[in-house]
Amino acid sequence: MEADLNGLRRRELKYTVPGSLALAIRDYIQPLFSLDKHASPEQGGYLVNNVYLDTPGLRFYYDTKFRQETRLKPRVRYYGPEPDNFLALEVKHRHNAISWKRRRQIPVDEWPGVLEVSKSVRTTPSFIDLPETFEEVNHLYCTAPVLHVRYFREPYTSDVDEYGRITFDRALRYRLAHGLSELRGSDDDMTYYGDQASVQEEDSPVVLEIKTAAFIPHWATDLIRRFSLVQRGYSKYCYVIDACLENGHDAMELTL
User: Fold this and answer.
1) Which candidate among 54, 72, 196, 242 keeps its CA 20 to 30 Å from the CA of 66?
2) Backbone phi and psi for residue 197, each to the nearest 5 degrees, phi listed first
3) CA torsion angle for 181, 49, 211, 95 (degrees, to 10)?
4) How would DSSP label each residue in the chain?
5) Taking the CA atoms of the chain, what radius of gyration do you get in angstroms?
6) What angle do CA 68, 71, 76 make, to 5 degrees?
7) Rounded CA separation 248/54 (Å)
8) Average pLDDT, stretch 99-109?
């Protein structure tokens, strides 16, 4: 659904806001932004599915949680309630405040073979030379699916910048993957973030992301000041793994 952003360096600012404030921000940006061309005008967005992979010791989780200066995160993405013809294999890199990702599509039926790596490889490579492709990460770190996250995204793109994007993510839910290659998951198998009873309420939390080129444009700073937005480190992946570890799950258990 997104444009080809391979290698594009960008800043990502994340906020959690009440639903009513998200609506006010959406109205405010209308003169400068348009609904993403891939979003259904009738629905106002699309369903996103991310399957996150990690090492047996949850290396990528801990790198994110403790703000490792340079880090990466592999994931598989598809759109809609279930995989269609293609999947996107992604590696999201981050160095300080700048992030970029490498992405390529594969046919759905090729996915199980991607995970066939030598189980004898247990290297822990330095982040000085970052692996670029999904296959390189999978091979070097022996990754396995850990978490499947689903949410509804309302995306907008800037009409005045070469690159500028604002997204609102709602109804976040998840299921543990336990190292399995299965990508499908019905909503009945998923757990909502937070209180499920409040998910459909007007002021239920919305994850707001402001994505710009490395230089933050004036409209972004004006938006942040006007609505008194306070940035917080929010990772859809870490949120769930935090809860699992607090509830007694073992790191190895989550990847087996």
Assistant:
1) 196
2) -65, -25
3) -20
4) -----BT--EEEEEEEE-HHHHHHHHHHHTTTEEE-TTSBTTTTBEEEEEEEEE-TT-HHHHHHHTT-SEEEEEEEEEESSS--SEEEEEEEEEETTEEEEEEEEEEGGGHHHHT---TT------TTS---SHHHHHHHHT-EEEEEEEEEEEEEEESSSSSEEEEEEEEEEEEE-TT-------GGG-EESS-GGGTTSTT--EEEEEEEESSPPHHHHHHHHHTT-------HHHHHHHHHHHTT--HHHHT-
5) 18
6) 135
7) 18
8) 92
Token pair belonging to 89: 């294999």
* pLDDT, mean of residues 139-161: 94
Out of 3.40.50.150, 3.40.50.920, 2.60.40.10, 3.20.100.30, the CATH code matching 10-254 is 3.20.100.30
Place of tokens 């700048």: 98
pLDDT in tens, 208-224: 999 998 788 999 999 99
| Residue-level pLDDT at 7 | 63
Spell out a b/e string for 169-198, using b for 16 or more CB atoms within 10 Å of the CB, else e.
bbbbbbbbbebeeebebeeeeeebbeeeee
Tokens found for residue 8: 């594009």
Task: Give me the chain's average pLDDT, please.
Answer: 87
